[in-house]
Amino acid sequence: MSRMAPKARSFGTEVAVATTARSTLSIFAHSRGVLSLLMEKVIIVGSGCAGLTAAIYAARANLSPLVLEGRQPGGQLSTTTLVENFPGFPDGIDGPQLIMNMHQQAETFGARFSYSEVTDFEPRNNHVRIKADDEWLETQALIVASGASARWLGLEDEQKLVGHGLTSCATCDGAFYKNVPVCVVGGGDSAAEEALFLTRFASKVYLIHRRDKLRASKIMGDRVFANKQIEPIWNTVVTKYVPDEKGEMRAVRLRNVNTNEERELPVACVFVAIGHEPNTKAYQGKLETDPDGYLITRHLAESKHPGVFIAGDVADRIYKQAVTAAGSGCAAAMDAEKYLSGLET
Ligand SMILES: Cc1cc2nc3c(=O)[nH]c(=O)nc-3n(C[C@H](O)[C@H](O)[C@H](O)COP(=O)(O)OP(=O)(O)OC[C@H]3O[C@@H](n4cnc5c(N)ncnc54)[C@H](O)[C@@H]3O)c2cc1C
Question: How many whole angstroms from 261 Cα to the centroid of ligand 1?
Answer without folding.
Answer: 37
